[in-house]
Specification:
By secondary structure, the chain is α+β, with helices and mostly antiparallel strands. The protein contains five helices and seven strands. β3 and β4 form a beta hairpin. The longest helix has 14 residues. A four-stranded mixed beta sheet has the order 2-1-6-7. Strands 3-4-5 form a three-stranded antiparallel beta sheet, covered by helices on one side.
Length: 138
């Protein structure tokens, strides 16, 4: 499985468009308050805070993770999301009530807090499918 993760990350790094990198970075930032789990080429890590951000000379968008202390580009890791189909009945009811209220920012925040893949990153290979129980505190 480790080799598959490494191969998957290398493929993403080589084939990700700038538009996908931008979207992933924005999506990641919106999810950070909820404790995003990710897999890099070198280790499994839990991303809690991004406390620095810059664009280097070749246009790569770099961000600083305070724990552990290092800089990395968004295309060097994949984070774990739950497929929309994994919603429980209770979550579906809550989601339906939020959608009826037409408050899109509230709906998006709720989806982010539940680590749901509402943008379709998993089928595109831009995110990994979270295993059951990976995000226990939701």
């Amino acid at each position: 499985m480790r080799k598959e993760l490494l191969k998957s990350n290398r493929t993403i790094e080589n084939n990700m468009t700038n538009e996908e990198k931008e979207l992933l970075l924005k999506d990641l930032c919106a999810r950070l308050p909820y404790g995003v789990k990710a897999s890099s080429q070198t280790s499994h890590l839990e991303i809690n805070t991004i406390d620095g951000y810059f664009v280097d000379g070749d246009g790569s968008k770099m961000f600083h993770l305070s724990e552990p202390d290092f800089w990395q580009t968004v295309d060097c890791f994949q984070y774990y999301l739950r497929p929309m189909s994994s919603m429980t009945d209770k979550e579906k009811d809550k989601y339906d009530r939020l959608v009826m209220c037409n408050a899109s920012w509230v709906v998006n925040d709720w989806l982010n807090s539940h680590h749901l893949d509402y943008r379709g990153f998993i089928p595109k290979g831009l995110a990994l499918e979270a295993t059951e129980g990976m995000y226990k505190n939701i």
